[in-house]
Design a protein that fits this description.
single chain, alpha+beta, five-stranded antiparallel beta sheet, 2 helices, 9 strands, 32% strand
Length: 126
């Protein structure tokens, strides 16, 4: 059986959604639901260790929830440094077209936070 992973989410009222992704890339994390990554994205970012999730959430109003990963996890070298749906569109178009971010592009990637893995889907535990 898979081990639980940790997901940082933003909470507004009773709604829990992606901590950074905005617009069409933002996902809702309802308790006991299966959440699937949007097609063409890196996947759903989770932390393998709670301590890494806690460090990531320091100084924010994010909450940490437990999830069970579904599918094969992947480490990535770069993520978008912007969370707006417009910039994420551009980032993912570059990834699809060039299989990476070409040098000299307007896209400025950044390293993912320590301990981050990306999965195609997760089951929300709490």
């Amino acid at each position: 059986m898979r081990r639980a992973k940790y997901k940082a989410v933003r909470v507004m009222g009773h709604r829990r959604f992606s901590a950074y992704a905005c617009g069409i890339y933002s996902l809702d994390y309802l308790k006991n639901s299966i959440v699937r990554a949007r097609k063409g994205t890196l996947g759903i970012a989770v932390f393998g260790r709670k301590i890494d999730a806690e460090k990531f959430c320091q100084g924010t109003n994010f909450e940490i929830i437990r999830v069970l990963p579904i599918g094969r996890g992947e480490n990535v070298k770069a993520i978008s440094n912007s969370q707006s749906d417009y910039m994420l569109d551009i980032f993912y178009r570059f990834l699809e077209r060039f299989h990476g971010i070409p040098r000299g592009s307007d896209i400025i990637p950044m390293k993912p936070p320590r301990g981050t893995m990306f999965y195609p889907a997760v089951r929300v535990i709490d």
